[in-house]
TrEMBL record:
Belongs to the HEBP family. InterPro entries: Reg_factor_effector_dom_sf, SOUL_heme-bd. It comes from Salix dunnii. This is SOUL heme-binding family protein. It comes from the Eukaryota.
Length: 203
C-alpha cells in the first residue's frame, strides 16, 4: 500500500547538499557500484527497458539470484534514465539507469541497477552468471537537481531540464553532461504522490 501512496521504502543513494536555492539543489553523490547491461533495443521489440529482466535476474528480484554466490541483492531507488540526446518517454522499472549510445551503426542502450551501499567496491558484489551483466564502480559526482511530482512526461521533463540548465549557467555552474531523470516510485503509485527529479551533472 505504501508504494501506491508514494512512500519510498527502499534504499536511496547517499548525497550531501552543497547548495540550496528556490530553483535547485547542488548535490554531491558518494561513489557507488553498478550492475549494467548494454544491448540493442530491437532485440526486445524496440523496448528500451528490455534489459531490465537480465538485471532483475542477477539480483534475484524475480526468483533465484543469477550470481555465483548465489546472493539476493536488495532493490534500490530511484530509477535513473540517461539518454544520448533529448528527452524520451520511459517505462518505469526499478532500480535502473538507462543511457543511449551507438555501436556498429546501431543505437545501443545501457541499463544499470545501482547496488546497495554495502557494496563499496565492484569486487565485493556477487559475480553475475550471465556474461552480459557487467559490474562497475562510479566515483563521486556533482549534480544540479530539481524535484517535481506527477507523471514524468516528455514535456514535463524537457521543460524542467531547460529551466534547470538556464538557472545553473546563470549562477556560474558548468554543465558537463546530459541530464538524468530519476523516478522514485513504481508505475502503480498514484500520480500526485510520485517523486521525480531531473539531475544535470556539473563540475
Amino acid at each position: 500500500m505504501g508504494m501506491v501512496l508514494g512512500r519510498i521504502t527502499v534504499e536511496t543513494p547517499k548525497y550531501e547538499v552543497i547548495q540550496s536555492s528556490n530553483d535547485y539543489e547542488i548535490r554531491k553523490y558518494a561513489s557507488s557500484v553498478l550492475a549494467e547491461v548494454t544491448y540493442d533495443p530491437s532485440q526486445f521489440d524496440g523496448n528500451k527497458d528490455g534489459g531490465f529482466m537480465v538485471l532483475a535476474n542477477y539480483i534475484g528480484a524475480l526468483g533465484n539470484p543469477q550470481n555465483t554466490k548465489p546472493e539476493k541483492i536488495a532493490m534500490t531507488a530511484p530509477v535513473i534514465t540517461k539518454t544520448g540526446g533529448g528527452s524520451e518517454k520511459i517505462a518505469m522499472t526499478a532500480p535502473v539507469v538507462t543511457k543511449e549510445g551507438s555501436g556498429e551503426g546501431k543505437k545501443m542502450v545501457t541499463m544499470q541497477f545501482v547496488l546497495p551501499a554495502k557494496y563499496n567496491k565492484a569486487e565485493e558484489a556477487p559475480t553475475p552468471v550471465d556474461e552480459r551483466v557487467v559490474i562497475k564502480e562510479e566515483g563521486e559526482r556533482k549534480y544540479g537537481v530539481v524535484k517535481f511530482g506527477g507523471v514524468a512526461t516528455e514535456q514535463a521533463v524537457a521543460d524542467r531540464v531547460e529551466k534547470l540548465k538556464k538557472s545553473l549557467e546563470r549562477d556560474g555552474h558548468k554543465v558537463i553532461g546530459e541530464f538524468l531523470l530519476a523516478r522514485y516510485n513504481p508505475p502503480w503509485t498514484l500520480p500526485p504522490l510520485r517523486t521525480n527529479e531531473v539531475m544535470i551533472p556539473i563540475e
